[in-house]
Amino acid sequence: MSIHNANEPHLADDDMLKAVIDDTDLSTLQQQHLAECSRCQSHRERLKNELTHLGQLAERYAPEPLRRISVADDKARSSLLTRRFTVSAAAVAAVIIVVWATFLIRSQQQGGIGNLAQDMVEAERLMTEVNVLVENALPQVYLDIVGETNLNMDEDFIDFLIPTYEDAPRISALAKKGSISC
Amino acid sequence: MNPSTHNVSGSKPSGDQMTDLVMQARDGNRPAFEQLIDHYQGDIYRLIYYRIRARMDAEDLTQDVFVRAFRNITRIREPLKFRGWLFRIAINRVNDYLRKKKVRAIFKSSDEGTDVQPVATDFQESPEALEQVLKKDFWRHVERIAKKLSKMEREVFMLRFLDNLNINEIAQILKKSESTVKTHLYRALAKFKKEKGLRQFLQEDLT
Questions:
Q1: Predicted complex ipTM
Q2: Chain A residues touching B51 at Cβ < 8 A
Q3: Residue B45 belongs to a domain
C-alpha cells in the first residue's frame, strides 16, 4: 500500500485506478483498507460515478437509429453488389481496352515515323557514297598506286580519256595530226 | 417503434434463450437471427456511432455487421461467445470504415462524414437547443480525451466505459489477455483523471 501520510495511509493514485477497474488486483492490506476507509471509498465512488455517467451520457447523446436492421434483403443486397461489381468490372475493362488501343496506335505511329527517318538517313548515306564516287570513281587501291588522291583532272583531259561519241572522230583526227598534247 | 429497443417477444431473452437463439440461427433459422438482431442492434449501433459519429453511416455499418454475422454464424462453435464475436465484427468494420475515410480525406478538403447539426445560440428559450449545445460539448470532450489515448487505450476505454463491457469480454473481443486489457485501462484511466474539462462536465451534469 502506498502511504500519503504517516498518520493517514490512503490508497495512492495508481492503487485507486486498480480499485476502480478491478479491486482484486489490490493487495489484501489495500483491500482491507478500502473496506474500512470512507475517504478512499468516496474517492473511488466519485471516480466510478463519473465513468458510469460518461457511458450514460454517451448513450443519451447518441441519436437513435431511424431504420430497423434486417437481413431479409440480404439476397437482394448481394445481387445488387454483384450487379455493381459487374458494371465496375465492365467499366474497368473498357478503360483498359481504350488505354491499350491508344498505346498501340501511338506506338505504331511512332514506329512509322522511326522507319521513315531511318530510310532517310540510309538514303542520305547512299547519296554521299554516290557523290564520292562521282567525284572520284577510282577505288582506294588504285588511288594508292597512282600516288595522288586528289587528281585535278579537267574536263578536257577526261574527254580525251573517255571521248564522247560526237567527239571521237575529231579527237582521232587531231591525234593523227599530232596536235593534241598531254 | 424505436428500433434499438424493439423485441419480437416483447421481453428480454434470458441467457439460455439467447444460447438457443444462437444455435437456431446457426442452423439457418432466420426468425431466430432476427430476434438476435432485435436484442443487439442497439448496442452495435451505438458502439459504431461512438467511434464514427455519423448516424447514417452508423446505420449502414450496423446493417453490414448483421449481414456478415448472418453469413458466417455457422462458424460459431460456442454460442455463449456470440456477443463478443458480434462486437468484434463491429470493431473490425469500424476500423475498415475509418481507414477508408482516412484515404478519402486525402482527396477532400473538409470532413463531410460527421454529424454537424446547427446549434441555436438562444438556447435559454429552447430546451432542445440547450440539449444540442450540451451534446456537442460532450462529444467535443470525448473527442479530446480520445485523441490523448493510444489506439489500444482508446479501444479498451471505450469498450469498458462507453459500451459497458467487462474486462473478460474486452479481452475476448480484442484477442488480448485480461492483464493486457487492464494495463491499457489503467493508463487510459490515469489520462482520464487528468482530463479536467470532461470530469467537470460530468460532475456538473451529475449535480
A1: 0.82
A2: none
A3: yes
